[in-house]
């Protein structure tokens, strides 16, 4: 497996639509729940162990068996109660497929699959293994909101990146767990939820003025 | 849940990832390589590397960029008035207030709602039109799916600074709109919008006497920066159909459509 290929896929500069999504941070900032670097750290931790954990498990499973994409996609729908978050996840899945199509030959995975499913399918096409797909998913679940925090709150970018470095071992652990469960039935895969992210996303979708798509 | 998607279970065996295929299904050209061979790759058998061909020539896409408040939306509205009756037209906006530009176009009755899409840019208007154009491409595609073939798509960028520029992956031609109220120094400052846009529009000439802007200085500097690329002076309050810009676009559209 090519580590450099994993870096290409996990690079924040990959033109796959991620820059327009705050992973729920914009709502958390506007409601005053996240103000400081320490707040951001807690937010990222919460996101990694809920949305990140689920994303890693589904990306790993899709990477192991891209032909299961539709079943996994339904499993993510069931784990995503907020219609706004479903839409955001599918928009990012579609954008990732668009970017990846220019880099690797892709098998069919629908027009706009959920992002973790797209990530797994793309990782397989790039000859990456399920643990790599999962680590990209877990890491990506926190880098998006971290960069949104720098832009929305004007926080010290070094301090925010230090948070990401601190979470790296957790990303690795989550990815290893995800890779160990690729043969689980979809219903047995992780289903950690973050109700505040769901509620926040629904509120966010109704705002007249917003900077991020989600 | 995905009525339109072709599920993988009813796929032809050749559509599967090559690694998933039974060895007997492998491409007949599979072969081994000697150790002294130059490294090379083969196209994946069973996967068409080419993007699907568009059934009809896609719409001409024109990006409209420029600093905050220079008159981009006013220009889009004028172009909709001037061209809406002749061309199948749609608009994508990248405004910071996601629906502000779209609402303006709706309020002014220049374009029906289904012909306008708004894109959120996550605090980075230049990223959405240059480095990561995916949301804009999705919006253009969705418009074409919903409305059928189009002749022209106008993409208005969020107001940005003089260094913003559109990616050629998103648009075919770009218009950069500056205004005289920003001072007659703007063309001299240059930046990719001023120097390289396919058309530079210097708007709000009606305000020139009020802000002490010398149009001849702007004209001279624009020529110096832009070489042979065209520049037009405009006052959208006086010319509500943006005549020189509409004519320029008509010429581009005519050049694409074989007579
Ligand atoms: N006097 C004068 N005002 C103009 C002209 N063109 C536009 N305006 C006004 O300038 C203001 C800004 O115009 P917009 O079209 O919203 O500018 P914009 O570039 O779309 O602005 P952003 O999208 O916010 O970056 C509005 O109040 C317009 O009515 C003009 O030619 N002359
Ligand atoms: Mg505008």
| Average pLDDT score of chain B | 83
Helix share, percent of chain A: 55-70%
CATH-level-4 superfamily name of chain A: Urease accessory protein UreF
Please write the CATH class name of chain B: Alpha Beta
List the bound ligands. guanosine-5'-triphosphate, magnesium ion
Query: Can you tell me the CATH topology of chain B?
Result: Rossmann fold
Mean pLDDT of chain A: 96
Please describe the structure with a list of short key phrases separated by commas or semicolons.
heterodimer, A: 214 residues, mainly alpha, Urease accessory protein UreF, 9 helices, B: 259 residues, alpha/beta, Rossmann fold, 31% helix, globular, disordered N terminus, binds guanosine-5'-triphosphate, binds magnesium ion
What this model shows, in words?
The complex is a heterodimer of chains A (214) and B (259). Chain A has one domain: Orthogonal Bundle (Urease accessory protein UreF). Helices cover 66% and strands 0% of the residues of chain A. Chain A has 9 helices and no strands. The termini of chain A are far apart. Chain B has 259 residues and is α/β, with parallel strands linked by helices. Chain B has helices at residues 72-83, 100-107, 125-131, 134-147, 186-189, 192-196, 208-211, 215-226, 243-256; strands at 60-65, 89-93, 116-118, 152-156, 173-179, 199-203, 231-233. A 7-stranded parallel sheet of chain B has the order 3-2-4-1-5-6-7, with helices on both faces. In chain B, α2 links the parallel β2 and β3 (116-118). The longest helix of chain B is centred in the middle third of the chain and has 14 residues, at 134-147. The chains are: A mainly alpha (214), B alpha/beta (259). Chain A binds chain B through residues 13, 15-22, 66-70, 73-74, 77, 91, 94-95, 98-99, 101, 105-108, 110-111, 124-125, 148, 151-152, 208-213, and chain B through 1-2, 4-9, 11, 15-17, 20, 43-44, 47, 49, 51, 96-99, 119-124, 127-128, 131-135, 137-138. Bound molecules: guanosine-5'-triphosphate and magnesium ion. Guanosine-5'-triphosphate binds at residues 66, 68-74, 95, 101, 159, 203-204, 206-207, 235-237 of chain B.
